[in-house]
Design brief:
single chain; 277 residues; mainly alpha; hpI Integrase, Chain A; 2 domains; three-stranded antiparallel sheet; 14 helices; 3 strands; 57% helix; 4% strand; globular
């Protein structure tokens, strides 16, 4: 079933980054349960596989992948009848907000620890000021700078981003050696892999005392800053290089709720004679 899917147009049409991540996930499934016939896969098998993953998000990804594989197998005639084992498996509860969104205190703590001119501070500014993912930041360099703007095509979505370079980011870029092409270069100017960049940046977060910090959390922080500044859904979607405003709308709603709560409490303060912060 897995081999048939990997040879199918459905897999071929995915972006290169999604192919790589999905291939790793499917290779893991094949190692764990490759000898079990798809027709005999049952709910308890799915939940057992989910239990071998480290957390609820990873467990749910196993469930999602198996569900997609079973639907594919049925549509291609690999299975003679529908198998609902994956959809019947219990979906684990996860943090609805996902990765921790960096607070202003987190950012301050990080830059206080990692001074100007350090690769760690440059990485933070790239993630925070461009909304780039690890995949995009790993390959970002001077070739992406055009007329004072950073332009790149997001690996996951293929959507183009065209953003002004903010002063904080420009200050760090100006400190790079003029012959360094890749911004976040590894040894001898080589680019990081996506995984090694994420691991390296996590180490920098831990060293600075931002224990929940991550590259993706900075991307969320950048979107949050925009929403709190009154940016529209499409402005935020453009920053994130998203195809639609579904995710951006979440940031706007949260910012609006906080703003409305402050306005409401200010009115209450007028009634009670107190002041709301």
């Amino acid at each position: 079933m897995i081999k048939s899917y990997l040879a199918s147009p459905r897999y071929a049409d995915l972006s290169d980054s999604r192919k790589r991540s999905l291939r790793r996930e499917l290779d893991w499934l094949h190692e764990q349960a490759g000898t079990l016939p798809a027709a005999r896969l049952e709910k308890q098998h799915v939940e057992a596989l989910m239990g071998r993953k480290g957390g609820p998000a990873a467990a749910n990804q196993v469930r999602k992948n198996l569900s997609a594989l079973l639907k594919f197998a049925r549509s291609e005639g690999i299975l003679s009848k529908k198998n609902d084992a994956a959809s019947l498996a219990y979906k684990r509860k996860t943090n609805p907000d996902g990765y921790h969104t960096w607070t202003e205190e987190d950012v301050s703590r990080f830059i206080d620890f990692h001074g100007p001119g350090t690769k760690a501070r440059l990485a933070l500014m790239i993630f925070l000021c461009t909304g780039a993912s690890r995949q995009d930041a790993a390959r970002m360099g001077r070739g992406n700078v055009v007329n004072g703007r950073i332009r790149y095509s997001r690996g996951k979505t293929g959507v183009s981003a065209d953003l002004p370079i903010l002063a904080e980011l420009q200050a760090e870029l100006d400190r790079l050696p003029s012959d360094q092409f890749i911004f976040l270069a590894h040894t001898q100017g080589r680019p990081y892999t996506v995984e090694s960049l994420g691991n390296w940046f996590k180490d920098q977060c831990m060293a600075a005392g931002v224990t929940e910090g991550s590259a993706h959390g900075l991307r969320k922080s950048g979107a949050t800053r925009l929403a709190e500044a009154g940016a529209t859904e499409w402005e935020i979607a453009s920053f994130l290089a998203h195809k639609d405003t579904k995710t951006a709308a979440i940031y706007v709603r949260k910012a609006n709720r906080a703003r409305l709560a402050s306005n409401g409490m200010a009115r209450l303060g007028k009634i009670t004679g107190t002041k709301a912060d």
